[in-house]
Amino acid sequence: MMAALLHDKVYGYGARSCRLGGYWRNAVDNHWRPYLTREMSELRACGIGEDEWQMLLAEVHQLLQDAEAGRLNFDTTYTKGVVCKARSAHDVLEARLELTVDLDGERRYMRLYFSEPDDEDRLLLSLSFRHKRGGMIGLEEQDGHIAEAQERFESWSRSRRMR
Among positive and negative, which fits the CA dihedral 107, 152, 8, 71? Predict the structure, then answer.
């Protein structure tokens, strides 16, 4: 049985990051490297400018702190909030960063995918840090990122049951 995404009876999805607060842990790859660290390093290697990189680091740091304190806002409309539930995956939440970055002449929108598993009170589990293009092609990219984050959540859940 999988550890499902928290669905709080009062607050609903996103209860920890948007109301109650919690603490972060990172899902890790086969080499025990956090996906968050790995994917941020990959982004840095894409040639993002130094000023944009510093602003991105600051925004990610603030996002993580705000989620720990339960200060993010949940968006059921998928148009204006920081956190929303991924439509195509049961266990994945999406946090949207305000900052966009320029890669290869295209604006990229930054996303942190995470979960709030039921089986550990207050846990915020980072699953993926990705960027996408605008428009329909970006939505297709995002669907792949969400599917990958769901797979990482399922792998994380299986590894916990094996202990």
Answer: negative
